[in-house]
Amino acid sequence: MEITKRVTFIAKEGCEDKLKELLEAMVIPSKKEKGCLNYNIYQYKNNPRKFMAVETWENEEALDGHKNSEHYKVYKSSYEPYTEKKYTDELDYLVTL
User: Fold this and answer.
1) What span is annotated as the signal peptide, if there is one (predicted)?
2) Distance (Å, rounded) from C-alpha 80 to C-alpha 46?
């Protein structure tokens, strides 16, 4: 079963560029991972301190693989000093065409 997550980050004042750099570094290697169906990072136009990652994985195994990747470990050990707040929502796909 597909897993889609939306992860929201609020950068600390003055840390927008560093957080953006860390998040952008996740995109290419994540998209290359087995089971990655979607992985995009967005920065809010009306609030440049706010970022959103939207990611979809084929299944729990693919998501676990992502969480054990080297680039995830770098991100996980680096984002907190630049982040004021972070929260995650799991999304359910409601319409199938």
Assistant:
1) none
2) 23
DSSP three-state, residue 72: helix
Taken in order of first residue, the domains within the chain and their CATH numbers are 3-89 (3.30.70.100)
Q: What is the pTM of this model?
A: 0.89
Tokens of 87: 């929260």
What angle, rounded to 10 degrees, do the helices at 70-78 and 16-31 form?
Answer: 170
The 10s digit of each residue's pLDDT in 9-57 is 999 999 999 999 999 999 999 999 999 999 999 999 999 999 999 999 9
Closest CA to 3 of 54, 72, 69: 54
What pLDDT score does 93 carry? Answer: 73
